[in-house]
Amino acid sequence: MSGRPDADAVVRAAVAVLDRNWTGSHTLPATGLYPHQWSWDSAFIAMGLRHRSPERAEQELESLLAGQWADGRIPQIVYDPRRDDDYAPGATFWRSDELPGTPSVPTAGLVQPPNHAWAAWEVYRADPDADRAADFARRVYPPLVAWHDYLTGRRTLGRSPLACVVHPWESGMDNSPLWDEALARLPDTPRHKVDRLDLRHASAGERPSAKEYGRFFWLAEQYRDGDCQDRDDLPFLLEDPTVNTLLARSELALAELARVVGADPGPHREHHEEVTDALDALFEPALGLHVARDVTTGALVRRATVSGLTPLLLPRLPRATTLVATALGPRFLGGGALMVPSYDVTAADFDAGQYWRGPAWFNMTWLVAHGLRLHGEPGTADRLEQNLRDLALEHDFPEYVDPATGAPHGTRKFSWTAAMAIDVAV
Ligand code: 9WN
């Protein structure tokens, strides 16, 4: 995609953002609002960093892996203890050091979507130093296998090969409409005082509501007080399309890494197929895309969100033609959106500025663009990627944008926005 006049300017500015947010061992999602290391952010960041410094991209992923638990989970957040007063819930909320099998660094007990093995494979491929790349592959393959084993062993709580999320934070799409009904069944009164430290850095209208935060904290408290054990009677248990799509996509990457390190790629390919097939249970014909399944009630959550478009990343997806039509149709891109809205623009409660309830995010647009290219829509993929990098540069790498106008929202100098912009500009 080289040759476009401002590609260099995009890369230069994006690299400056990643340099600014680099701590020496990992990249903060954004200084201020997110002062620790976040799991799926680091994998997206590594995807962009690999073009400028494969070595730093390797360090980014390995610094996250230093937070892995003995049961294989890669935590949502690896805390920097020096910044524990800057984000809630912090390390003192989780008290991970009091549990057996936890690492020496403090972490959250929850997880985030598994895009790590995919990122590790892309970083490996981008590293021109063959010895360094091979060493990296040898070091990361076993912990990445353990991570997938955790998801497929302890998290398949819905009598299906699909992994469950036990908290909205685990989906990475915290206040997505997919979680409304399940959250409505929960109390919004945690014992822990809900510190809204986030509101120092972002306006209330752009962040989850007080009620949502009450429920987020209540649920996190329940999970922590149960020693972060995964049981099928947890109060929030859902199967999410993006979590499982990234699991399946990452299994393909693990199969490639297995080949490199002399392990058997067969089980990874088989698991890829199994999750791809199982995802069909989340397909909702009336909406033309995948939705979440509430394991507690057994019901599908009939809301069209960007999560339900990401199965397009899977090469052998049976519903690909329908998903492409839905992506290009009135709920998402049909009205001329510049990037992919996080929620159905035709829904009565669509809100173009409210976090995961309407705005377009750069990581999700990048994922959907990949999927559209894979399934025969290169023109739309190119247009989305062009808009992605242009809006990123124009608005100082915002967290998310109004999908119709491109108006920026949330924090600025946001790391994965910069990383995605580098990836599509080089
Ligand atoms: C909770 C760091 C994270 C992203 C999530 C995004 C937001 C955190 C928050 O920021 O979530 O994990 O405080 O709102 O929703 O996807 O990983 O960038």
From TrEMBL:
List keywords of the entry alphabetically: Glycosidase, Hydrolase
**GO MF:** Glc3Man9GlcNAc2 oligosaccharide glucosidase activity
| Pfam families on file | MGH1-like_GH
Q: Name one GO biological process term.
A: oligosaccharide metabolic process
Q: Where is the Mannosylglycerate hydrolase MGH1-like glycoside hydrolase domain?
A: 34-417
Q: Which residues cross the membrane?
A: none
Q: Does the keyword RNA-binding apply?
A: no
Q: Look up the domain of life of the source.
A: Bacteria
The family classification in the record reads: Belongs to the glycosyl hydrolase 63 family.
**PANTHER family hit by this protein:** MANNOSYL-OLIGOSACCHARIDE GLUCOSIDASE
Q: Quote the protein name from its UniProt record.
A: Mannosylglycerate hydrolase MGH1-like glycoside hydrolase domain-containing protein
Q: Lineage from the top down? A: Bacteria, Bacillati, Actinomycetota, Actinomycetes, Micrococcales
